[in-house]
Specification:
It is a single chain. By secondary structure, this protein is of the alpha/beta class. 37% of the residues lie in helices and 18% in strands. The protein has a nine-stranded mixed β-sheet with strand order 4-3-5-2-1-6-8-9-7, with helices on both faces.
Amino acid sequence: MSRPRFNRILLKLSGEALMGQGQFGIDPETVNGLAAEIASAKAQGHELCLVVGGGNIFRGIAAAAKGFDRTSADYMGMLATVMNALALQNALEDQGIDTRVLSAIPMAAVCEPYIRRRAMRHMEKGRIVIFAAGTGNPYFTTDTAAALRAAEMGCDALFKGTSVDGVYTADPKKDSDATRYDHLSFRRVLSDDLKVMDAAAVALCRDNNIPIVVFNIRQPGNLAEVIAGGGTATIVQN
Ligand code: UDP
């Protein structure tokens, strides 16, 4: 069974996708490479919006485990996503693509506040919208923010870029017998606790009938190929 061609797509990138070979932070060359890939996906005529994580800089839950107050740590994590969003915005604008960052936590001097109608208008004008600061609430993740924004923006699919080319029966980096699923149901992902996105994000996509496409973002050229309906990926749907 082949994958359909989706028109309006939300692309979720984890913060780690911006790190390159490093262990922390933002690697400009990697960000430029991602921007070029996003530009070629957009050139195929898709409407694109993005949610970027912050795990390359700060993760609330990990900091809380070391004694940070969880709520403060989560706000720090959300601020980290704003840094990543600004880095991506700059790189995309270098590619000649009008890009707007809309933050769930208003910060007027840095970017626009998230207002759904405004985001819709930007997309109608052919701009790429980057949703920053997650949902704006602690105790959530940017995966959930991605599912939420995909539903709000009426996206046809959520593309989740990871470091592997789909969802496997076991961790392919640890188990050589692990096999990749082409298709999965939301029910199976939730009942078997398969590591696609966190359960809240998966449930939101299931309830709003938004397929999740899991693919490898680290492989050059893959984003445009997978978005065009080719390449290797796992699709999760009802
Ligand atoms: N975060 C949050 N609420 C949200 C989204 C994110 O509190 O709606 C915080 C949380 O601390 C999280 C951090 O921001 O650890 C970075 O996001 P995430 O871990 O999802 O980034 P990724 O793993 O995708 O890089």
